[in-house]
Amino acid sequence: MADGVQTQASEVLQSIARHINSLSENSKMTRRRALEGIQKETFGRKPELDNGVLEEVFSDTFKHLLKIVSDPVEKCRELGISLIREYFSFVQGSLGNLPYFMPVLVQRLGQQEIVEPSEEIRLQLVEICTLLVGKSKKKIAPYLDDMIKILIRTLMDPYPEVKKESCKCSIILAETIPEHFHMQSESLIKPLLQNIIHQHSKVRVSVIEAIGAVIQNGNNKSVEDVVSHFAQRMFDQSPQVRKAVTLVVGNWCLHLLDRYSFFPKLIPLLLTSVTDELPEIREMADSFWHDTGLKYYKENEEELKDKEDFAQPDPAHYPSGVERPNLGCRTLIYRHLSKILPALIRDMGDWVVATRIKSAQLMTTLIVNAEDCMTQHMAVLLPGLHKACSDEEKEVVKNVGRAAELVGYFVEPEVWCKLVLGAIKSSPGYGQLMVLANIIRGSQRELLKPKLEDICSVLSHPDTCRTVQTEVQSQLLSCVLSISQVCQEDCPPHGQQLFTVLVTVLALTNDDSIRSQMRAVLDILAKTHGLSSGQDLYSLYTKPLLDTFQDNYAMWNNFSVERAIFDALLVESGPVVGELLEDVIPIMVANLNPEKDPEIRLKFFSLLSRLMLNAAGTLDSQQRFGDFAVTVVKDMVIPNCVWKAGRIASAVRKTAVSCLWALLKSGVLPKEKVVTVMEEVLTQVVSTLDDDDKSTRLITCRVLMHLFNLLGTSIDQDRLHNISPELIKRLDDSSDDIRVAVSKTFLSMLDCFEKPYNVDLYRAHLEFMFKGLLVHLDDPEANIQEAVLEVLMKAASLQPAMLVKEIESVKHKHRTPKYCDALIEHIQTNLAVT
């Protein structure tokens, strides 16, 4: 058999002898054909040569092929290296030539500068390295230094495929001879890390896998060098990269020899993947974490056995949809939380948005695993949560809110109340209130009940709830909502405080969404009282809230928060206002004192007008407002109609007159009440006919018309005749709207003259009125002429003959006799005057 192999090998050697000699020729084509001939006569022969024959042939030929690795022609090098690769792949005794081949590899790949210019050939050579390590097994150990030297260079190769193959070779090398490799492993970490941000995701994946194997089988101390880089890869856009990190870190947590030393660095990485956006990665990380806990428990069974034997049963009050981690996981977090938490809180304030989001997500996972262990870390945790709540990124805020809610599940109110409420007292900001709202949402009702008084007192304190910031107002509402939802029937003893918070927010907000949110929360609070809607709460709590104003309402100014609360309370409470007039009217009288700032009087008149628009549903809900009507007119309206210089004073007068108009129009001011203040009212109202403001004059006309309609002949006749010249004067107003309104007022005033009219006594007044009206019968504006004609037709009944005489005396002066003729015809037809 051996003779046959020898004979066949001799034949092959004879057939390729010429080709081997040709490898030294200067002609590149000759060398190329020689290499092709060698390949054809050896690995390309059909039928295939026996392994022993090939071994015999290449024992003489291999050294000649090594020269071709450095051939100046790329194609020749490629053919020669392909032959070498086939030799090492298929020939059993090929490793005997490793001492000759390894220096060649180092010379081509392990130099400071790139010696082999062809990317494809460099890739072939690295593939041969991988092949040699895999085939040599433990025998590669003597060449470890050479392999490390080569890999340090090839990992930095510009060709991505070479990088990937180098990573593969590093993994096999580390796993093949770990007992030798650990001495050299640190040499590969730096070149590997330089590739971890490579633009190709497949390269990044290969690098991460290689780092995993290198550290797993090498010096574990390198974990410290790579952790920060792995943390950055958690934000990688490629799921495969994040998956690779998770796989490596998970394996380290389970199998790394020195893992106990690095748990504080590895646990955050693994738990970060538990909240990854890809389900596959989440499941993988969760499985690794679960297994890590089990293994940790098994390795420390004696130490943890007592804890398990005397452990409390799974808590009944536990977050829904969350699976409780095993004892090993919880113990790991308990032991390392003090090292993990400060860094995590720091990352929640990082300038990179993605870092803040991941950190906030990790915080929720950490709290689930820490459970009541968080109690001793609250002083560190809360400031971080407060700050993160103000993050401009909604995803961060959402996860921080979830983290705070989980704190409520695991930390007792006895502990967190003092810290959280203390923070709110010091700085009642958005973050502090948001954390409180979420912690309450996660708290257990029975444990929270004893602390409700403290919580509600802080929330209802003026320093807390009297804010104009929309974000803070929103969180105040969230706090009340959380209390209502969690404490339910325990709320009524604290209902006044919660009601005060809600009304204060409503009073100070300019945001419609906050108003809607407040009313929704009010309805929920009402249900805790067994009431059907939030409106019912006003019956319970409006009077006590008004009582808190008794000591200071006389000192209110335009910026007083109490004034805004009073305003909101009266507008929102509806019919309850009618039950509390004894409390409400004195406050309004005091603040409509003419000595008060005009701004606050404007606010109160505006409030009064709004209430009067629906008097039956507000002030007069109990049909008692008439008892206070005279006070309203005499002490509130009339004093503010007195003329004073300035635009603000003018605005006050307009508002006061408007309020009087609303009062009269609402019907809550009966005639018998108005009669008692008639003189004062008419005197002041007539004076406002000359007001500089057009709107004031117009509203005054309407007020007079309403007064005339209401009082009729109750008005003193001399007073009426004194008013008519003022009305005639207003017919010269610059506004046509006012002139029309004056005409209508005249019509109402004419009904107030007693019948029969005393012509002898009031002849001069009547003549003046007829003459004044006839002047405007010739007005350029047709609508004014029509309005005045209607007045004159009605006034004619007082003394028709006198009016006809006046008409005849001025008719020839009018632009057109049309209206005079119509008036005379009316008198002759209806009043039988010729």
UniProtKB/TrEMBL annotation:
InterPro entries: ARM-like, ARM-type_fold, DAAF5, HEAT_DAAF5, HEAT_Maestro, TPR_DAAF5. Residues 317-508 form the Dynein axonemal assembly factor 5 HEAT-repeat domain. Residues 652-830 form the Maestro/Maestro-like HEAT-repeats domain. One of its GO terms (biological process) is inner dynein arm assembly. Signal peptide: none annotated. Residues 23-307 form the Dynein axonemal assembly factor 5 TPR repeats domain. One of its GO terms (molecular function) is dynein intermediate chain binding. Transmembrane segments: none annotated. GO terms for cellular component: cytoplasm. This is Dynein assembly factor 5, axonemal. It comes from Lingula anatina (Brachiopod). The lineage of its organism: Eukaryota, Metazoa, Spiralia, Lophotrochozoa, Brachiopoda.
